[in-house]
Amino acid sequence: CPGINVDWPLALDLKFNETFPFHRVPLGNSLGTVPFVIEIREQGRKVIAWSESCPGTMSPFATCCQECDKIPARIAKLADIATHAEKGTNYQYLSLQQLEDLVVQRTKEMNTLKPQARDPI
User: Fold this and answer.
1) How is residue 67 annotated by DSSP?
2) Is the pLDDT reported for residue 13 higher than 70?
3) 62-71 pLDDT, tens per residue?
């Protein structure tokens, strides 16, 4: 089984490892661990995934085994986490891109408030 290409539905100018919510996926064999292994290629622009229970073989007309074929649905759930963070989400649960966006937003807010802070009422 060659695994399955991961279609990560985020901006093309961003790398997979900048947006994937690694911080939301516990390490080891614990509840919540993703049941697949990923391989990042082409400097983060191509990602291949294999199920941890991949048998290594597939039927002649399939593109991957049945276990690896289940991965896209799981990836869709993770993509939702990576793109939609509720307001007030603790920073440790944000991806690198979400943190960068938050810093830009806060900087704009501070620049808007600076003139008000200089002029006493």
Assistant:
1) T
2) no
3) 889 999 998 8
β-pair partners for 40: 47
Neighbouring C-beta atoms of residue 68, cutoff 10 Å: 23
Question: What ranges in 20-86 are assigned the alpha helix state H?
Answer: 71-83
pTM, full prediction:
0.61
Q: Residue 52, CB half-sphere, CA atoms under 13 Å: how many?
A: 6
Q: Using CA atoms, how far apart are residues 36 and 54, in angstroms rounded to an integer? A: 9
Locate the domains of the chain by residue range: 4-118
Question: Where does residue 83 fall: left (phi above 0), alpha (psi -120 to 50 degrees), or beta otherwise?
Answer: alpha
Torsion of CA 26, 32, 36, 41, to 10 degrees: -40
**Can you name the residues that pair with 46 across neighbouring β-strands?**
41
